[in-house]
Backbone:
């Protein structure tokens, strides 16, 4: 058994650390214990010292998809696994292994510059590589799962490193097994991607093709630049206005409900998902209930993208949560649709 001094040195363990800089909402709460983990050896030795079956624990990367409503009286793990390694290149596709602690957009930029294509539409999404599979991040008609090969993780039940393939991760719309049945079981250390050597530009989402054409784009790097420009115009910079990007998922509603809504709103945007369900933009629902650009105290929806809830400065996590509840309740009353949060509330 390690003594506390050895553990502190081993994993940069700190007591009562403010998490303000570890969440993009900028909520000032404390973690009873906080550890930056740089390799599997540090991780396993720390878990031996602190029985996570008895001590509450939480894994955070860049903190771009989390809302803290109170202090966390447990152990917060911050995986800092680094590195980008080309595993295989057959001239048609590449396999690339990436550390969970790498910033997602840095990885997308690196991949595109290397001629490893596919992730361009996911440019400028905040967060770490390790959090991408958990959320199955997506944007502009592309999801992370489309280019996922496998991931490596520490299995807290089996107490060993494991490799999980696509089918085992059960990816869905902004979801995976890591958010459902296996929530809290795995600590992701590395993700391996399968990318293309030949460009295959995905321009079918919304007005992306028009924007790409106006920019006279022709390459994946051009597409990345266009998407970065679009996102910068529509979305707030977390460094200036605390936010976690899209706060709610786009709801999948039964066609019966959709038809009822369309009686009054014939121009309702929609995307058929299955024979019985239709996806409706959450931003449209928020706008139609009068919440677009609305501000209450230190919290509000972003004027150009109501799907984003913003901390205008000094808001508590509880204030942001309560604000989101008001939006959900109003939409439920008006449309009979209950929005599901993308953001994890702790």
Residues:
């Amino acid at each position: 058994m390690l003594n506390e001094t050895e553990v502190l040195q081993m994993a940069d363990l700190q007591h009562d650390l403010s998490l303000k800089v570890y969440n993009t909402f900028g909520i000032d709460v404390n973690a009873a214990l906080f550890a930056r983990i740089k390799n599997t050896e540090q991780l396993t030795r720390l878990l031996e010292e602190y029985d996570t079956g008895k001590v509450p624990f939480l894994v955070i990367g860049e903190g771009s998809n989390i809302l803290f409503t109170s202090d966390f009286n447990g152990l917060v793990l911050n995986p800092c696994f680094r590195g980008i390694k080309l595993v295989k290149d057959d001239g048609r596709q590449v396999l690339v292994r990436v550390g969970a602690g790498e910033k997602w957009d840095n990885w997308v930029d690196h991949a595109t510059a290397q001629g490893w294509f596919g992730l361009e539409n996911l440019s400028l999404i905040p967060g770490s590589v390790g959090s991408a599979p958990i959320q199955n991040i997506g944007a502009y008609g592309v999801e992370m799962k489309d280019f996922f090969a496998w991931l490596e993780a520490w299995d807290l039940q089996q107490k060993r490193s494991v490799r999980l393939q696509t089918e085992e991760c059960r990816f869905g719309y902004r979801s995976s097994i890591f958010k459902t049945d296996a929530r809290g079981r795995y600590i992701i250390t590395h993700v391996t991607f399968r990318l293309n050597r030949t460009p295959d530009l995905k321009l079918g989402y919304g007005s992306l093709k028009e924007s790409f054409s106006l920019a006279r784009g022709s390459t994946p790097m051009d597409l990345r630049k266009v998407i970065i420009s679009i996102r910068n115009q529509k979305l707030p910079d977390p460094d200036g206005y605390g936010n976690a990007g899209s706060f709610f998922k786009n709801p999948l509603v039964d066609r019966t409900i959709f038809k009822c809504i369309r009686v009054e709103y014939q121009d309702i945007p929609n995307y058929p998902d299955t024979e019985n369900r239709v996806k409706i933009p959450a931003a449209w629902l928020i706008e139609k209930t009068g919440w677009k650009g609305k501000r209450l105290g230190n919290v509000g929806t972003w004027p150009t993208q109501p799907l984003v809830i913003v901390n205008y400065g000094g808001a508590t996590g509880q204030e942001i949560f309560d604000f989101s509840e008001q939006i959900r309740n109003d939409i439920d009353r008006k449309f009979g649709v209950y929005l599901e949060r993308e953001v994890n509330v702790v």
